[in-house]
Specification:
heterodimer, A: mainly alpha, MetI-like fold, disordered C terminus, B: alpha/beta, Rossmann fold, CBS domain Like, 6-stranded mixed sheet
């Protein structure tokens, strides 16, 4: 980690913090983008609370995806679950290929408007990277290491928790990172079904033809994505370092 | 003591190990040799039940291995494989502590044992205990692999090509270290290799396997002088035979009274080394020195050569 890059990080974080807490300070920058004396800064709610609910939605959905994807990944790599591997692969791939907006359309009649349909869409969309990385991580563990673990009398359970999962961790974390970053962007469409989030700002801009709003919403989402990507990358590196190299997939 | 009785493993129609019966005495080293695919590793892995036998049984100190839960059995048997399979996410100390931790030893006892083993293997605990496997050289990884296998003081050690990944210089040192430690701890060892040189160097008895069958199980000298089958004779190498035989006897055995000039040779050296010295320095005889350095006689080319023939 070089000094200039960490400086850049701190600057980006500071910019984000100031922008969501006191957006009016930046009014001068957005005024040229407005027409007919429309407001330059989003005025229909607090940016801070929208950012927080955006994050809560994304992390909630990713947490659920991680739990399900890792459990499924572990199950289909056990001898007893091996025959479910093709089936679960197809299911997870369907979750990825089904467009989130279509999931929303199907989910709203079932669970109503608000955060729920968004959570469902993000949950399904986030499964694939984590599941595939869990499989990769678990199957790349050296057969020699597993043979040694078995030969020393480690039970299957201990082998999983003390050898396989720790060795697969950097790769699994890379999947989680991918999933979070994709969902940070995707979560904006949740605002079409009245989920609280930064999509509101963008949609308000689209409806009133106000470029300043669109840009503000986009900017906050982008900054969040960059910073979170960066933070998770650091965690991954720390996990991979002692394994003798950076094993993460970027 | 290990008794292997009519041990057989079949996969479908192919027989990988065919009715092998052999007995390894307490505190001795049995080396299993043969070409690849002869069933050596399968035989070894049936002893700690990594592979379940199709038929036959293994008794360790009279106890049938099938009567012990498999994990418990493996806690009592050290296991070293080629490439060692060290845990890359754990330090040297944690790797060595694996089996003691499984057995629920307390922290103090584990720490003491780890230190003892690192000392035994000439790895300074202060320097190596907290290193990760990828920070070690091949020779150091090998020593950690053996130390890990010995951690819970198993009476039996199974080794599958344990020196296969080492270069020749380090390999010779590692073999000598293993012999020294085995003599000291009295561990029973079953070792699989395809290197005949290694088999003759380490084995108290050598088992020759070919195409799933055990062809001969005998002390090294007998394998050379009375090979049971043509395959054994080929494997031990007819051209190498006299020299291998010489390497099995020490200078002490061939020492005769009388004077000789030149730099003395140690009584513990083997006759092959002695012959090599004599040829190289162009003498007919050399003085022999005991462990204390005192000259105890001489060793001559004629005296040595008598040990390179079967009938004495």
């Amino acid at each position: 980690m070089t000094r200039p890059s960490s400086l850049l990080r701190v600057a980006a974080l500071a910019l984000l913090a100031v922008f969501v807490t006191a957006p009016h300070l930046f009014a001068f920058a957005f005024e040229p983008l407005t027409e007919n004396e429309a407001p330059a800064i989003y005025n229909q709610g607090s940016l801070l609370s929208l950012t927080l609910s955006h994050l809560v939605t994304v992390f909630g959905a990713t947490l659920a995806s991680t739990a399900v994807a890792v459990l499924l990944g572990v199950f289909v790599t056990r001898p007893s679950g091996l025959e479910f591997l093709p089936l679960s692969r197809s299911l997870v791939h369907i979750g990825q290929t089904f467009p989130p907006i279509a999931v929303l359309a199907i989910a709203v009649p079932l669970v109503g408007f608000g955060a729920k349909p968004t959570l469902i869409a993000l949950f399904l969309y986030g499964l694939l990277p984590i599941f595939e990385n869990t499989l990769t991580g678990l199957t790349q563990v050296s057969p020699l290491t597993l043979e040694a673990a078995k030969g020393m009398g480690m039970s299957p359970r201990r082998r999983l928790f003390e050898v396989e999962l720790p060795l697969a961790l950097p790769v699994i974390l890379a999947g989680v990172r991918l999933s979070v970053v994709i969902n940070l962007g995707t979560a904006t469409i949740g605002s079409t079904v009245a989920a609280k989030g930064l999509g509101e700002v963008i949609i308000a801009g689209l409806q009133s033809n106000n470029t300043a709003f669109i840009l503000q919403g986009g900017l906050v989402v982008a900054l969040l994505a960059v910073l979170i990507h960066d933070g998770l990358m650091t965690v991954e590196r720390a996990a991979a370092r002692k394994l003798g190299g950076f094993a993460g997939v970027s | 003591m290990i008794e292997i009785e009519r041990l057989t493993k079949r996969y479908g129609n192919s027989t990988v190990v065919d009715g092998v019966t052999m007995r390894v005495e307490e505190g001795s080293i049995a080396v299993v040799v043969g070409t690849s695919g002869a069933g050596k590793s399968t035989l070894l892995r049936m002893i700690n039940r990594l592979i379940e036998p199709t038929s036959g049984r293994v008794l360790i100190d009279g106890q049938d291995t099938m009567s012990v839960p498999e994990d418990e059995l493996r806690h009592r048997i050290g296991y070293v494989i080629q490439g060692y399979g060290l845990f890359p996410h754990r330090t040297v100390a944690e790797n060595i502590a694996t089996v003691p931790r499984l057995l629920g030893w307390n922290r103090k006892r584990i720490a003491d044992r780890v230190e003892e083993l690192l000392d035994l293997y000439q790895l300074d605990p202060a320097e190596f205990a907290n290193k990760y496997p990828h920070e070690l050289s091949g020779g150091q990884q090998q020593r950690v692999g053996v130390a890990r296998a010995l951690a819970a003081r198993p009476a039996l050690l199974l080794m599958d090509e344990p020196f296969g990944a080492l270069d020749p210089v380090i390999r010779a040192k590692a073999q000598d270290d293993l012999l020294a430690i085995q003599r000291r701890l009295g561990t029973t060892i079953v070792l699989v290799t395809h290197d005949m040189e290694e088999a003759f160097h380490l084995g108290d008895r050598i088992a020759v396997m070919d195409q799933a069958r055990l062809l001969q199980y005998a002390p090294p000298a007998e394998l050379l002088t009375r090979p049971a089958e043509a395959f054994v004779e080929r494997l031990v190498g007819s051209a190498e035979r006299p020299f291998r035989l010489l390497s099995l006897s020490t200078v002490r055995d061939a020492t005769e009274p009388g004077p000789a000039s030149g730099e003395p040779i140690e009584a513990s050296a083997n006759l092959r080394e002695a012959l090599s010295r004599l040829v190289w320095c162009g003498r007919d005889a050399l003085p022999v020195a005991g462990a204390d350095g005192a000259v105890m006689g001489r060793v001559s080319i004629d005296g040595i050569l008598r040990f390179g023939r079967p009938s004495r």
